[in-house]
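> forwarded from #structure-qc
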């Protein structure tokens, strides 16, 4: 009865976790999994979230259903951080709904793009692999362009070319900040140009903001998104709180739509609600309620922002140390210093990736993507020496 189901490839990163766990060497290093780690290699629950969770347990008097839109207090409390205090709903043109993580939000956003009649979406290459997977599942054709140039900066020529041949039948999916997997973000001046090009070619933007606050700062990381929103009439925004509130497994995200006319919001969002109903019916409550309680409390908000600052500062220090190593063996680590977020790509050959694992016990994706937060003062020199060894 189920014999027509084909075997699907295992998730490469999950397979990598197994390999790392099975390695008996005490000095092995995991740079694969996409979670933040402290200098001690831990992924702790934020203090602000712990405090909010305690309050939540005390205060919550019902777990009755909330509806497909989830916790709207959570959704609206986030808006000033995402869209800016002075334009939190762009004059009544933005509305959102809670989703299971950024992935749930992307699933709805891309399904809405398809429902709205689009057949093609431009996506930079490489991208987070789930972007292509969701598009394939939904039946949305992906138009690829090269995201990065050889010098470790954004390939603006490729993006310009992709947008110049695009039109009103096309959408574009952009990483708002902390590009996964390259760490290569657009500069503010580049965003200014991109926003203009998207508007000029009447392309529908879908902006994926999954790492706000992990790059340059909460405000700085929203520059591109906000810049695009002032230029275009309509857009979809996919948001994740799983990294910037450390809630990964609690699955906390939101989908926002900006429409041309306030009167269109209810019609557009009804599509998000009906798609959610058909997918998961209602999002999980706990993590989003904890985020809401952080944002409702001034002291907890300050504590959360402080904890986020410390994470970002640690990642900047790791990046600075890698960048200072410069030419290392056959690769240049300098561009990593100017990149953002959890990830960067080092141009290892497949053989070098294998050698990093087998000879040095250092595990990361076959693409050469490393999680910079997996490096600590205790292991960074070991990593740089291993890079020199396998690429030299
Ligand atoms: C670019 C990007 N978008 C969205 C997500 C989704 O995050 P989550 O579903 O864990 O909230 C991720 C997670 O790795 C990501 O890297």
């Amino acid at each position: 009865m189920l014999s027509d189901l084909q075997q699907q490839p295992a998730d490469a990163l999950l397979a990598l976790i197994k390999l790392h766990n099975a390695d008996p060497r005490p000095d092995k290093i995991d740079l694969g999994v996409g979670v933040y780690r402290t200098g001690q290699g831990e992924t702790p629950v934020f203090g602000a979230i712990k405090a909010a969770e305690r309050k939540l347990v005390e205060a919550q008097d019902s777990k009755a259903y909330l509806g497909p839109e989830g916790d709207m207090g959570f959704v609206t409390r986030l808006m000033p951080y995402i869209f800016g205090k002075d334009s939190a709903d762009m004059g009544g043109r933005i509305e959102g709904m809670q989703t299971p993580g950024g992935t749930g939000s992307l699933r709805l956003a891309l399904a809405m793009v398809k429902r709205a009649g689009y057949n093609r979406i431009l996506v930079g290459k490489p991208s987070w692999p789930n972007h292509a997977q969701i598009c394939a599942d939904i039946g949305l054709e992906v138009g690829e362009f090269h995201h990065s140039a050889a010098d470790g900066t954004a390939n603006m020529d490729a993006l310009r070319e992709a947008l110049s041949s695009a039109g009103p039948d096309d959408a574009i999916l952009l990483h708002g900040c902390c590009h996964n997997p390259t760490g290569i973000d657009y500069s503010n001046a580049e965003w200014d140009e991109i926003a203009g090009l998207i508007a000029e070619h009447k392309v529908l933007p879908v902006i994926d903001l999954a790492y706000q606050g992990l790059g340059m700062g909460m405000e700085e990381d929203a520059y591109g998104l906000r810049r695009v929103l002032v230029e275009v009439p309509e857009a979809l925004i996919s948001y994740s709180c799983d990294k910037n509130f450390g809630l990964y497994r609690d699955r906390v995200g939101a989908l926002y739509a900006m429409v041309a006319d306030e009167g269109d919001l209810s019609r557009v969002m009804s599509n998000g609600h009906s798609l959610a109903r058909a997918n998961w019916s209602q999002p999980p409550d706990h993590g989003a309620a904890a985020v809401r309680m952080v944002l409702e409390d001034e002291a907890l908000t300050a504590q959360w922002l402080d904890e986020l600052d410390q994470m970002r500062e640690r990642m900047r220090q790791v990046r600075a140390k890698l960048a200072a190593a410069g030419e290392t063996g056959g690769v240049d680590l300098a561009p990593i210093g100017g990149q953002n977020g959890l990830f960067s790509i080092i141009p290892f050959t497949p053989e070098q990736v294998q050698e990093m694992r087998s000879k040095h016990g250092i595990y990361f994706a076959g693409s050469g993507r490393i999680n910079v937060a997996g490096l600590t003062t205790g292991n960074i020199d070991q990593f740089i020496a291993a890079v020199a060894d396998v690429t030299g």
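QC bot note: The chain has two domains: 12-45+312-391, 65-296. Residues 12-45+312-391 form a domain with the Aspartate Aminotransferase, domain 1 fold (CATH 3.90.1150.10).
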